Amino acid sequence: MNPGDRQHKLAYFYAMAAVGFWATSATAFKLSLGHVGQLPLLLVASVTSTVAFFAYLAFTGKLRLLRAFTKRDYLWSAGLGLLNPFLYYVILFQAYSLLPAQEAQPINFVWPLTLVLLSIPLLGQRIRLLSIVAILISFAGVLIIATHPAKPAEILDFRFSSGPGVLLALGSTIIWALFWVINTRDRRDEAVRLFVNFLFACAYILFLTLVLGQARVGN
Q: pLDDT digit string (tens) for 113-134?
C-alpha cells in the first residue's frame, strides 16, 4: 500500500468516526442534562477538553509555542473563548433542555448554512444562485423537522415543541458560524489557540456557575 492510499483510508476513517461521534451527541446531551445541570455539565466538559488539549500539546512539543503569545494574542483568545465554547454551549444546552434531541440537533446543524451567509458580508464571499436555492431548501427541511407537521399545509402553522428552544438552537448556529469566520483570520497553531480558548472558557463557565449558585451537580 502506497502512502497516498494509506492517507486516504485514514481520512475516511477519521471522517466516519467524526460522523459517529456527532450522531450520538444529541442523545448524550439529553441524557446528561437529565442528571446534571447545564453549567456543571459544561464546566466538566470544558475542563476535560482543556486537559486533553494540554496533554496533546505536551506530547507533541507544542507547549513551547505559548511563549510566542503576546498580550494581544491572549486577548484575542479570550474573545474567541467567550464565543465558543462558552456562549455557544450555554445557549445550545438551554435549547436541548427545551427541545427533543431529534429536533435540537438538526436545527443546530444548519450552522454550515449560517456560515455561508455570514461569509458574504464578513469575508466578501460571493454566492451563486444555485447555492442560494440549496440553502432555502435546507432551511425548509429544518422547518419541517422543527414543526413535524402531519400534513404539508401544517408547515405554515409554525407549531414548534418549544418556540424559545428553536430560537436558541438557531441562535447557537450564528455564534458557531461567527466563531469560525473570525478564526479564518487567526494564523496561530490550531491546537494551541484552541487550548487557550478553552482555558479562558473554563474561567468564564466557573465564574458564571459560582455566581448563579449552580456549582452543585444537578438541576
A: 888 888 888 777 788 888 888 8
